[in-house]
Amino acid sequence: MQEETLTPTPARGMTMTAAAAKKASELLLANNKENAAIRVFVKSGGCSGYSYGMAIDDRTLEGDSLFEDRGVKIVVDKMSLPLLAGSEIDYIENMMGGGFSVNNPNATSACGCGHSFRTDGKAAPDGQGASCH
């Protein structure tokens, strides 16, 4: 499969804030994965229906979309992309520590924990959504 890196646009890809790109670059370097990407995905679960996931990944699978923003590669699988299109990854530090967050224009509601969201106002899929993380 020929790998194509797409320039992110708000309507079709994912972007990163400067803080998120800095932290992602630090994590990639610390794990000796400078050429890897940050894989962002959505899975059923969480208190609002879907939850976000992120991982370091040095491979691209069939159907993945690859974006690059601020020098960091972002990989999204084809099932997650419609739910994440136009999203921005941020990194926030506060008194409780720090962490990545996703500013998702597709989310119609989100849980107070910030790790779970819903896109259509319907109940969580497959009976998921019992508790916050």
Automatic annotation (TrEMBL):
Biological process terms in GO annotation: iron-sulfur cluster assembly
Name of this protein: Iron-sulfur cluster assembly accessory protein
UniProt organism field: Truepera radiovictrix (strain DSM 17093 / CIP 108686 / LMG 22925 / RQ-24)
Lineage: Bacteria, Thermotogati, Deinococcota, Deinococci, Trueperales
Gene3D superfamilies, sorted: HesB-like domain
Core domain mapped to chain residues: 14-114
Molecular function in Gene Ontology: 2 iron, 2 sulfur cluster binding; 4 iron, 4 sulfur cluster binding; iron ion binding
InterPro entries noted in UniProt: ATAP, ATAP_core_dom, FeS_cluster_insertion_CS, HesB-like_dom_sf
Pfam family, one: Fe-S_biosyn
